[in-house]
Design brief:
With 282 residues, the protein is an all-alpha fold. The protein has 13 helices and two strands, in the order ααααβααααβααααα.
Length: 282
C-alpha cells in the first residue's frame, strides 16, 4: 500500500507542476525551458523553513510568493523577447538556478539537502492533500480558460501584435500568466521536497524542465485534462521502467520529437479527432 501511495502522490505533484507550465505555455503561448527552477525555488524555500521549525502548511504560501516573485522578475525581463529567444532566456534561468544552488553551502551545495522534515500529517493524508491541490488548480485553470481572461490569453498566443492593436495590454496579461504559473510551481516544489525529503541541484535541472515540457506537449498544449493525463502517466513511467529512468533526457527528447512530428495537438487532439470521426460515422 505504501508503494501505491508514493505513486499517487508523485502523480498528483507532477500534475500540479505540469498544469503550472501549461498556464504559461499552453494558455499564453510563452515557451519556458527553465520551469524547473521555480519548482526548485519553492522546494528549497519550504525545506529551509521547515528545518527552522516552521509548520509545513505555513511554508506553502511562502514558497508560492517567493517563486511567484522570481517569476515576476524573470517575466518582466522577458517581455521584450518572444518565441526562440524567450526559450533561450528561460533555459538560461534554469542553468543559472542550478549553478547558484551548487555553490551555496547553506542550501547543501553539490550534495543537496537531506533530512527534510515530514509534513505534520500521515502519508495517506498528504497524498489526499496533494490530489486536492492538483484538482483545485485544474478547476481554476478550466475556469480561467473559459473566462474573458482565457480569451485574452488565447489571443496573445495566436497573435500578440493583433492583440496589442485591439488596445489590450498584452504585457500585463503575459506577466500575470507567468506569475501565476511560477507561484503554483513553487507550491509543487514544496510538496516535492516534503514528499521525497531530499532535494539537490540535479532535481531541478534541464532534464526536469524538458520532462515537464514533454508532459504539456504530449497531453496537448493548452488542454487541462490532456496535460493532467500525460503528467500522470509520464511521471510514473520512470519509476516503473528502469530504462526510462536511466535515459530520461533521451526518452523525453525522442518523445517530444515524435509528438511534434506526428501528433502536434497531443493526446487531447487525438481524442478529439477520434470522437469527431465517430460522430460523422454515426
Amino acid at each position: 500500500m505504501a508503494y501505491e501511495i508514493t505513486l499517487l502522490t508523485t502523480m498528483a505533484i507532477s500534475i500540479l507542476f505540469a498544469l503550472s507550465l501549461n498556464f504559461i505555455s499552453g494558455f499564453c503561448g510563452q515557451i519556458s525551458l527553465g520551469h524547473a527552477a521555480f519548482l526548485g525555488t519553492g522546494a528549497y524555500a519550504s525545506a529551509m523553513l521547515t528545518k527552522s521549525s516552521i509548520p509545513f502548511l505555513l511554508t506553502l504560501p511562502v514558497a508560492a510568493i517567493i517563486a511567484g516573485f522570481f517569476g515576476f522578475l524573470i517575466g518582466l525581463a522577458s517581455l521584450r523577447v518572444r518565441h526562440d529567444f524567450l526559450a533561450i532566456t528561460t533555459m538560461g534561468v534554469g542553468f543559472l538556478f542550478v549553478g547558484i544552488v551548487r555553490k551555496q553551502d547553506f542550501l547543501g551545495g553539490e550534495l543537496g539537502m537531506a533530512g527534510i522534515p515530514s509534513p505534520d500529517m500521515s502519508r495517506e493524508s498528504f497524498m489526499v492533500f496533494c490530489i486536492i491541490l492538483a484538482v483545485i488548480f485544474a478547476v481554476f485553470s478550466l475556469y480561467i480558460r473559459r473566462s474573458w481572461m482565457g480569451f485574452v490569453f488565447e489571443s496573445i498566443a495566436d497573435n500578440e501584435d493583433v492583440t496589442r492593436i485591439l488596445g489590450i495590454d498584452a504585457s500585463r496579461f503575459k506577466l500575470a500568466a507567468f506569475v501565476i504559473g511560477t507561484a503554483v510551481a513553487g507550491i509543487a516544489g514544496a510538496l516535492y521536497a516534503h514528499h521525497f525529503r531530499y532535494i539537490g541541484p540535479d532535481s531541478f535541472g534541464f532534464v526536469q524542465s524538458v520532462s515537464v515540457l514533454a508532459m504539456v506537449i504530449v497531453g496537448g498544449v493548452g488542454s487541462v485534462w490532456g496535460v493532467a493525463f500525460a503528467a500522470a502517466v509520464l511521471s510514473i513511467l520512470p519509476l516503473l521502467v528502469q530504462f526510462i529512468d536511466d535515459y530520461k533526457l533521451l526518452f523525453y527528447s525522442a518523445l517530444l520529437f515524435a509528438m511534434m512530428r506526428f501528433a502536434p495537438d497531443g493526446v487531447a487532439g487525438i481524442v478529439q479527432r477520434i470522437f469527431g470521426f465517430a460522430r460523422r460515422g454515426s
